[in-house]
Amino acid sequence: LIDLESTKEDWWQTDAPSQIKTIAQHYGIFNDLYGDAYFYPVIPLHVKYDIDETTVATINRGNLLKPTEVKSQPRVNYNAEPDTLWTLLLTTPDGNLTSKELEYCHWFIGNIPGNDIAKGDLLVDYMMPIPPKGIGYCRYVFVLYKQDQKIDFSEYRKEGRCLELKQRDWNTKEFYKKYQDVITPAGLAFYQADWDFSVQEFYHKDL
Question: Which UniProt keyword terms apply here (predicted)?
Answer without folding.
Answer: Coiled coil, Mitochondrion, Ribonucleoprotein, Ribosomal protein, Transit peptide
